[in-house]
């Protein structure tokens, strides 16, 4: 069986930034002593609160309703849905189950092995990697180009990922997501715009995210509405153990293609070693 590259979910939760926009309405002023203007939330500060809060949680779970645009010839778009269930136990346990219109996959890391299972094809691939969740996700990305939507929410370096490669930020205003009051924030980098809805109050939880690929044809979007946050889950003993279903076939992850070395100029001999 030839190895093949497995596609899963989409997107890595990556760069964010700071900034704000919320002008007071001068018409709302009344005669008398000057009124203090309500403090405007700082997008970067609210994002950092979310990252710090999640980093303090030793175990948690959530569900997410995901929609993903697929662009076809002529700029036509179709939208597919996916229901995700995510489970985290620090420092080195992760399980994400995703079932939807075209996807049926599981990603499991137990501190020693990362496994990706495709339920539609009954295939699975494994990658050996000891260490914490960050080490496993970094290796999966660098070696195989694997990105898993929302997996970074369990990273110890979430703020570092969030605060990287920023161009512009915006505080949009207050909004409700499934009845929960949230700050609506927008963050831009070169090719991507992120909109985040972060719960107000002392539980700054991510409730919704919209990612727009600005430079791709038809600007496809990836959206997740997150609910059922649980910070005291009771995990079954075998939750982070992958047991192949009957008839499942083990295959290999396909490594990223390495850039080909430039051909030597005529009349010169190839050199040994050198910078990588």
By DSSP, the count of extended strands is 12
CATH topology of the domain at 42-232: outer membrane lipoprotein receptor (LolB), chain A
Shape: globular
What is the H-and-E element order? HEEEEEEHHEEEEEE
Most strands sheet = 12 strands, mixed
Strand content: 35-45%
The CATH first-level class of the domain at 42-232 comes to Mainly Beta
Average pLDDT value? 83
**Which strand order does the major sheet show?**
7-8-9-10-11-1-2-3-4-5-6-12
Oligomeric assembly = single chain
SS content category: mainly beta
**By CATH's scheme, which homologous superfamily of the domain at 42-232 applies?**
Lipoprotein localisation LolA/LolB/LppX
Amount of helix? 10-25%
Q: Give the C-alpha Rg.
A: 22 Å
Low-confidence stretches: 1-36, 259-276
**CATH architectural label of the domain at 42-232:** Clam
List keywords for this structure.
single chain, mainly beta, 3 helices, 12-stranded mixed β-sheet, 11% helix, disordered C terminus, disordered N terminus, outer membrane lipoprotein receptor (LolB), chain A, 276 residues
Descriptive account of the structure:
This protein has helices spanning 43-55, 133-144, 158-162; strands at residues 59-72, 76-89, 93-100, 104-109, 113-118, 123-128, 168-177, 180-188, 192-199, 206-213, 221-230, 249-251. The protein has 276 residues and is mostly beta strands. The chain has a domain at 42-232: Clam (outer membrane lipoprotein receptor (LolB), chain A), CATH 2.50.20.10. Strands 7-8-9-10-11-1-2-3-4-5-6-12 form a twelve-stranded mixed beta sheet, covered by helices on one side. Strand 5 (113-118) and strand 6 (123-128) form a beta hairpin. The longest helix is centred in the first third of the chain and has 13 residues, at 43-55.
